[in-house]
Amino acid sequence: MKLPASTEWLLHCAASLAQLEPGETASAAQLARYFDLPAPYLAKQLQALVKAGILAATTGPRGGFRLGREPDRITLLQIVEAVDGTSPPYECREIRLQGAGALRPEDCRETCVLAAKMAGAHRAWREALAADTLADILATLPATAPAHTRRRLFEMS
Q1: Range of the domain at 64
Q2: Which of 28, 43, 104, 157 has the most beta carbons within 10 angstroms of its beta carbon?
Q3: How far is CA 43 from the centre of its chain?
Q4: In the chain, what percentage of residues exceed pLDDT 70?
């Protein structure tokens, strides 16, 4: 499975916003400069996280983005699904019933073993992402990372 680059962007942006002090926000332009990303496209992508309640946005001269809830209530799966949706990446088209090698319909009453294996892998992937929160990510960062992130984000204001 290959996710779009915007998924990586938003995972990193959310992790960076989780390092801000309460009440602080960072603009899309600040985040774009911080990660060297295209600001207009990043701003559009950040709105997906706002719509999902993962981020909150404020307007005005001191506006920007902040987490919409506590980091321990935001899973990596929620971020990924806000950007990429919830559809499974594999769709069985029952090609075992097609072409010169087609099986008899009565031999295909059970779910295709390949479809079942792919569904199991997708479930495991989702469970792994659902088990990790932004708080878990923050706990693995070096102690100096949050101050570094804040300093670098805000010196670009």
Answers
A1: 5-87+133-154
A2: 28
A3: 15
A4: 98
* pLDDT digits 0-9 by tens, 93-121: 999 999 999 999 999 999 999 999 999 99
Place of tokens 């390092």: 19
Q: Is 120 contained in some domain?
A: no
Q: How far apart are CA 136 and CA 102, in angstroms?
A: 48
Q: 109 lies in a domain?
A: no
Q: What is the tens place of the pLDDT at every residue in 81-100? A: 999 888 888 999 999 999 99
CA distance 111 to 109: 7
What CATH code is carried by the domain that includes residue 141?
1.10.10.10
- Residue 114 in any domain: the answer is no
Burial (CB count within 10 angstroms: exposed 0-12, middle 13-18, buried 19+), residue 33: middle
Total of domains in the chain: 1
